[in-house]
Structure formats: C-alpha cells, structure tokens
Amino acid sequence: MSQSQSYVAGTVVRFVTSVPFTDFAGNPVNPDYVYLKYSVQGQTEVVFEWVNPTGDPTSTITNTSTGNFQADLPTTGLPGTWVWGWSSVAGSGADITGTEVVWVGELLISPDPL
Asked: What is the chain's pLDDT, residue by residue, as a tens digit (114 residues)?
C-alpha cells in the first residue's frame, strides 16, 4: 500500500502502519524487527528499529496493537520530497511474519511560509 501527502515544514507527521504486519495465515503479528525508514531527497536514509519484545530504544516507534505501529517525526528544516516505508524481515529467527513491507509513501514538505 502507499500514500502521498503534503505538509508545511515544522509539522510533526504521524507515520502509521495502516495495514498490520501478518503471519503466513494472515493473522496480525508483531515481527521480531520492525523498521521505519525515510529519506529526504538527496540525503542519507534514516532508520528507526523496533525490536520485539523490548521496543525502540529511541522511543520513536510505538506498538499500538498487535501488528500495528506508529511514529511521530518532526519536519523542521527538512523540506523536500520524503520517501518512507514500514518493513520487517519476513520469517526472521523465531518470527513467523509473512509480511515484509506493509506501507510505503511519499511526502512533500514545503518550506516554512514567510
């Protein structure tokens, strides 16, 4: 699934997994590892990692319910096109996750108004 939206720089954007991570049978499941990755045009990719069961050490990614996650990211000083996505490693370790990518999108962050 994908999503495209526009915001003004300085806005805090909430990234959500609108579709849950699932096991091979289609049931919601928390993977061993969940990643939120984004890059702003021409810049290095930023990665946040949530590890089951300890969570995200930066407290950026929150597990809102089984298979669903969210993160609030500031956009101050980061105008441009953002490409982002939620992912996991399917079937990693004891994990029975059947889903590798649950949501990708693009944001357009406009510069702060004068």
From this structure: 445 688 898 899 999 998 898 887 888 889 889 999 999 987 899 999 999 889 999 999 999 999 999 999 999 988 999 999 999 876 655 566 666 777 788 888 888 765
Q: Are 108 and 81 spatial neighbours (Cβ–Cβ below 8 Å)?
A: yes
Yes or no: say if 87 and 72 are a contact pair by the CB < 8 Å rule.
no
CB-based contact 23:83 (threshold 8 Å) = no
Q: Report the candidate in 84, 16, 87, 5 with the shortest Cα–Cα distance to residue 46.
A: 84
16, β-bridge pairs: 70
Distance CA(59)–CA(34), nearest Å, equals: 13
